[in-house]
Amino acid sequence: MRAAPDAPAAGDAFRYALRLGCISFGGPAGQIAILHRELVAGRRWIDDAEFARALNFCMLLPGPEALQLVIWLGWRWYGIAGGIVAGLCFLLPAVVLLTALSFGYALYGTLAPVIALLAGLKAVVVALVAQALIGIGRRALRGPAHVALALAAFGAIAGLHVPFPLVIGAAALAGVALFGARPAATAAPRPPREHRALTVLAAGAALWLVPLVALVLAAPGPLPLRLYLFFSKVALVGFGGAYAVLSYVNQELVGQLNWLTPPQLLAGLALAETTPGPLVLVLQFYGFAAGWAAPAPLAPPVAALLCGGLASWATFLPSFVLVMALAPYLERLATQPRLAAALEAVTAAVVGVIASFALAVALVVLVPGEPARPDWSALAIAAGAWGLLSRTRLDLTWVLAAGALAGLAARLASAA
Predict the structure, then answer these.
(1) pTM score > 0.85 for this model?
(2) Burial 334-352 (b: 16+ CB within 10 A, else e)
(3) Where residue 191 falls among pLDDT bands split at 50, 70, 90?
(4) C-beta neighbour count of 75 within 10 angstroms
């Protein structure tokens, strides 16, 4: 790898990405804050203006922004090979840990103590989703038009069950119509060697086709192929962060395809919150759980690993490909008012999408059963988690641990 003139030493850069992958709890906001604090203010490996431009570029793309920013940094310093190594260093610790947790859930998830611990984690997740909804809403809803887009998206998802990709596409078109007439910024110069973007896209398409062809030839049952195609589609419409994607997954995998149950959906989200790395890695758990539940003709562990691996490959491959293909165009993309307008409208609509997901999560966790009755212990844990997250600077890891222990305590108290 040939380093850029101002690049840090390769060993230092990739060790930092690996360390970040091991400690990056707290979702994309926390991960991006850590990157800014340490790389801009601390190590001075990149200046603030370039960091901000790169972050805005990553926010234009579907997929997890923090991972994409790490990939971009690796590409900025060491080219395509650097982007691949940096992204994998950030991602792999969480992949390994969530795989271990997935096996633990599959083998022991029906034991009473594990159910109790997960119940506490699920209650904390209710507070996390609600906080994400409020935080994104404050940033995204800047006027009556944005509020209208959010309400329309909520009604489309929660009331009319319109597919998530259609909601996102309609919001983007509405954004161009409503906000796209702004004057364009000064156009950036045309980047050199544009054929490299086509080469990267072609390589990405080939890497996506390899598992597809292998699945067709090996024929390990119908589920892996259908799952791979579904998560590939999820990755390409994954605007708005993990919670918006989870609304789509809930709509399809739980409501339509019946590959997952609502408790599995929430268990996966609870476990993913306890791991570092991008929260959208929860899709790996969903692939794992679907493969374990319908393994034929494979053994459950083999089918689960296969489906979990396919979910991760389909989810994260586009991030690597899009960042490294479009990074040379960063300045030009940032000057496009229609693109910014479409993203602005999508972000507003995502508030409504996350609201529909928050409602579904709250109903499952806080008022479960038929007929629905309040679960007072879950309500208390969720309220306590909300208070800790809102009024203290306690690390999310400790809030999750407290919620799990509170769930176990509530179980023991009810059994006494």
Answers:
(1) yes
(2) bebebbbbbbbbbbbbbbb
(3) low
(4) 23
